[in-house]
């Protein structure tokens, strides 16, 4: 009578190995454990035994920090680096791939806990704090030193795009704009021949110099 060879699924493998699911997923991501070698996404007993013999090495490499959202990542970085860290900066580090995004939870990015634990680049963090601040339309106007109606024209033309939308009062959606995009915009428009200082100098009630720019929809037709 033959005995069916023991195999392991993606939950059984880490359970029998005595490691957390996130550690197993990270070990797979880092190539410390090979992908499933059997049909149906399962691992053979031989692969499991090889991993069991390397268990301590695998644990040392994957760390013990689960993958984290932006708020919790900021808290961990702040405690470890001894300086304030905002969730906006974490999101910016994710956009720059300085903190790898490895998944999501309820539609929000999850950042690699190992990378958060190992992050040391204070210069990159400074840039992320500066460029990654998210501003509302009115805050964007203050940042650019123009009127909100001028910001509306930048949005209409597609020259300014939100990087995120969040729920505001009365369950309305509020668009948020990245400070780094706002900072480079005046120089880019000036190089394109637009008198940016004239935009800034336009008094209340007067038409915006940006009003004649074609809308994004017009450019696509």
For the record, the CATH architecture of the largest domain stands as Orthogonal Bundle
Share in β-strands: 5-15%
Series of secondary-structure elements, N-terminal to C-terminal: EHHEHHHHEEHHEHHEEHHH
Helix content: 40-55%
Quick one: CATH class of the largest domain? Mainly Alpha
| Strand elements, count | 7
The coarse overall form would be elongated
> Can you list the strand order of the major beta sheet?
5-7-6
| Count of helix runs | 13
User: Could you report the average pLDDT, rounded to the nearest whole number?
Assistant: 92
Number of domains: 3
Largest sheet: 3 strands, antiparallel
Please state the CA-atom Rg, rounded to the nearest Å.
25 Å
Set out the fold topology.
Layout: E1 7-8, H1 12-17, H2 21-29, E2 43-44, H3 45-53, H4 55-62, H5 70-81, H6 87-95, E3 101-105, E4 108-111, H7 113-118, H8 122-131, E5 134-135, H9 137-144, H10 148-157, E6 164-167, E7 173-178, H11 179-191, H12 196-201, H13 216-220
Tell me about this structure.
It is a single chain. With 221 residues, the chain is mainly alpha-helical. The protein has three domains: 7-62, Multidrug-efflux Transporter Regulator, Chain: A, Domain 2 (Orthogonal Bundle), CATH 1.10.1660; 70-131; 134-220, Multidrug-efflux Transporter Regulator, Chain: A, Domain 2. The protein is 50% helix and 11% strand. The strands form three sheets. A three-stranded antiparallel beta sheet has the order 5-7-6. It has a two-stranded antiparallel sheet with strand order 1-2. Strands 3-4 form a two-stranded antiparallel sheet. Strand 3 (101-105) and strand 4 form a beta hairpin. Helix 2 crosses helix 4 (55-62) and helix 9 crosses helix 10 (148-157). The chain starts with 6 loop residues before the first strand and ends with a helix. 26% of the residues are buried.
């Amino acid at each position: 009578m033959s005995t069916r060879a023991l195999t392991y699924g993606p939950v059984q493998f880490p359970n029998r190995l005595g490691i957390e699911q996130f550690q197993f997923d990270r070990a797979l991501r880092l190539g410390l454990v090979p992908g499933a070698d059997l049909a149906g996404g399962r691992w053979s007993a031989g692969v499991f035994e090889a991993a069991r013999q390397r268990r301590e090495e695998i644990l040392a490499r994957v760390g013990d920090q689960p993958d984290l959202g932006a708020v919790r990542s900021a808290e961990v970085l702040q405690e470890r680096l001894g300086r304030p860290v905002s969730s906006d900066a974490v999101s910016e580090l994710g956009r720059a791939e300085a903190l790898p995004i490895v998944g999501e939870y309820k539609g929000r990015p999850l950042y690699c806990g190992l990378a958060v634990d190992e992050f040391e680049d204070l210069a990159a963090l400074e840039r992320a704090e500066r460029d990654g601040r998210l501003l509302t339309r009115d805050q964007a106007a203050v940042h650019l030193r123009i009127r909100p109606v001028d910001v509306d024209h930048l949005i209409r033309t597609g020259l300014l795009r939100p990087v995120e939308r969040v729920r505001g009062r009365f369950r309305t959606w509020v668009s948020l704009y990245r400070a780094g995009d706002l900072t480079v915009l005046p120089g880019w428009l000036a190089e394109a021949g637009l008198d940016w200082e004239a935009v800034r100098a336009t008094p209340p009630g007067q038409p915006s110099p940006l009003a004649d720019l074609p809308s994004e929809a017009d450019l696509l037709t």
